[in-house]
Design a protein that fits this description.
- By secondary structure, the protein is mainly alpha-helical.
- The chain has two domains: 4-154, no CATH class; 156-196.
- The chain has seven helices and no strands.
- Helix 5 runs antiparallel to helix 6 (137-151).
- Keywords: Membrane, Transmembrane, Transmembrane helix.
- The chain crosses the membrane at residues 165-192.
Length: 196
């Protein structure tokens, strides 16, 4: 049975930090959590209506469970979003090689730790299903903080400059190749006429 203090503690200490990180990282409020918010609000209205009666306590328990789910969902959604961004950056050789102010070793180690903590969080969450699903939160938080730690070393400007230089080099090589082809054709035509 959840108490009002436990509900408030979960909201302030666990839900708000991860939800605010999620919203600031996405730049938007995730639609996936709207149903949980509606359920929480509905049950809290019933808590206000029924007070400390059994029906009020049942609704407080339900609101607490929905808040627990919203907290876990926020953590997982943030981990998934950071994971997708890191995967995209690290699969691109230019970004991986030049896009971080970290050594390649530190980047690999940080990325490995990020993945490992995410895996552990999921394993712990599955172990505590029906018992205490919040046991996985410290692992999700550790993974999220590790991911943020890697991303804060991202150097977007350097990668963009390198891509621009690569594009200019590609254009130059195409133009040089085009003119070399024309010159080779002219020389071939002259030689062909000379030996006719």
């Amino acid at each position: 049975m959840a108490t009002r203090q436990e509900f408030l503690s979960l909201y302030r200490d666990k839900f708000l930090p991860v939800y605010s990180d999620l919203v600031s990282f996405l730049g938007d409020k995730p639609q996936e959590l709207l149903v949980q918010f509606e359920n929480i609000n509905s049950h809290l209205i019933c808590v206000l209506e029924y007070g400390k009666s059994q029906k009020g306590q049942e609704n407080l328990d339900k609101a607490y469970n929905h808040l627990t789910r919203a907290t876990l969902d926020s953590s997982k959604l943030l981990w998934i979003t950071i994971n997708a961004k890191l995967d995209a950056l690290l699969l691109d050789e230019t970004s991986r090689t030049f896009g971080f102010s970290l050594s390649q070793k530190d980047l690999r180690n940080g990325y490995g730790l990020f993945k490992e903590l995410g895996r552990i969080a999921r394993t712990v969450e599955m172990q505590y299903v029906g018992d205490d699903p919040l046991m996985s939160l410290p692992y999700y938080r550790g993974a999220i903080d590790t991911g943020f730690g890697i991303l804060k070393h991202e150097d977007k400007e350097r990668v963009q400059k390198i891509r621009n230089l690569s594009f200019i080099a590609l254009i130059k090589s195409q133009i040089i190749g085009f003119f070399l082809g024309i010159i080779a054709s002219i020389i071939a035509s002259i030689l062909w006429k000379a030996f006719e």
